[in-house]
Amino acid sequence: MTTIPEYDIARSARCPLDPAPAMRARQEEGPLTRVRLWDGGTAWLVTGHAEHRAVLGHPEVSVEPARGLPRLSPAEAAGMDSMAKEGSSGLGFIMMDDPEHARLRRMVTSAFTVKRVEAMRPATQEIADELIDRLLAGPKPADLVEAFALPLPSLVISNLLGVPYDDHEFFQANSRTIINRNSAPAERGQAQRRLAEYLDGLIGEKLAKPGDDLLSGLVERVKAGELSRQEAARMGVLMLFAGHETTANMITLGTLALLRDPAQLALLRESDDPKLIASAVEELLRYLTITHGGLRRVALADIEIAGQVIRAGEGIITVNETANRDPSVFPDPDRLDLRRNPRLHVTFGYGVHQCLGQPLARMELQVAYPALLRRIPTLALATELEQIPFKHDGFVYGAYELPVTW
Amino acid sequence: MKIIIDQDKCVASGQCVMAADDVFDQRDEDGVVVLLNDDPSPGRLADVRQASLVCPALAITVEA
Ligand code: SF4
Questions:
Q1: Peptide bond before A331: cis, by omega within 30 degrees of 0?
Q2: Which of B26, B36, B55 is best to mutate for the A interface (most A CBs within 10 A)?
Q3: Which terminus of chain B, N or C, has fewer Cβ atoms within 10 Å?
Q4: What is the ipTM score, two decimals?
Q5: Which stretches are transmembrane (chain A) (predicted)?
């Protein structure tokens, strides 16, 4: 009898920016293999790029927990069970299928068009410059996460949503609890509830006194009867949460990757070609794949992927970080190469659930890296790689701290 | 070159606009794709193909 390997996303301490060794081993066995989950159940693990897109673009796969989505930890299983009991989907439309998903998602997409996001670029640049002024005026070494990587996207998303930035410690602490896959179910539930209550309070305020922010836009929908107040609060939580944790980790790890590769760093610092900067950001997104560990789906019918039939009801995990290192799409995939064309990367996912905030994330990163590298030309790591506390425990990979000096 | 878009499928990711902003745009109300030019010059083929390839919703078909 062959034993089925365990699902394991822990990246190696020696190569913390590369996919988990266990994931790479599965990828070497083939684009579609099986893994055993913590509860003894099994799921299909999709590690190839073409197969990843085939699954996520397939009309017969679902993202709804109630249909049998694979569960990645006891805490998550408990969370899904309680959501099922309440008949709700805690994180809103990201765990719903169409047409419900599309209905809710379309209510917020207008805020994230390429044009709207472009209009936010000058303000984002100002935020970046101010944060760097403060960083340079303060003591060194400094923690790049606290001084720059986290406040930048937090400020941007708070402005966009219409959430007072003064409350950022509150929502960052709660987001951290939600994203940590070892959080106890009760803790995570509490954090989710606290954020939902907070957003609900804000919605109440905006019902009385609307502004021109995204939350006020949702409040209009509530007034028109197109959206319940609870749905609006959930969308607010999702956006607040997704809007800062992910980009913050990209800024942190991207800076780290560049500091470790002076030639690539020089390329980005010395270019003022927006095309090269945009493409460099895509490459960092591909190389780092902070959305690691896999996206979950469940087959609704028998479907064929890579010559293999996945039966209705079977769970599937598609792994962004191995798809992004698939040599048939990205030659020499382990090399950070800011000049390659990495547009087909799947860091934002693929299919109808692909990240809605991606234009915003791109713009923020296109501002953040050049600002840092140009204004602090002597920027350097103030610690050894082994000393950096990486987020091995999260659904989003990153570092808790990045000590830098200049 | 002939380009066909499917607005019902579009999930407003904006990837097509980033690939070819002279050919694709997004509606202000909901970010859904609109075609600015359904017959761009052959020199634009590579970027338009790219738009179709990166579209997460398979909403863009290119015939050339
Ligand atoms: S890339 Fe596809 S899904 Fe995204 S805006 Fe364009 S048509 Fe819509």
A1: no
A2: B26
A3: C
A4: 0.94
A5: none
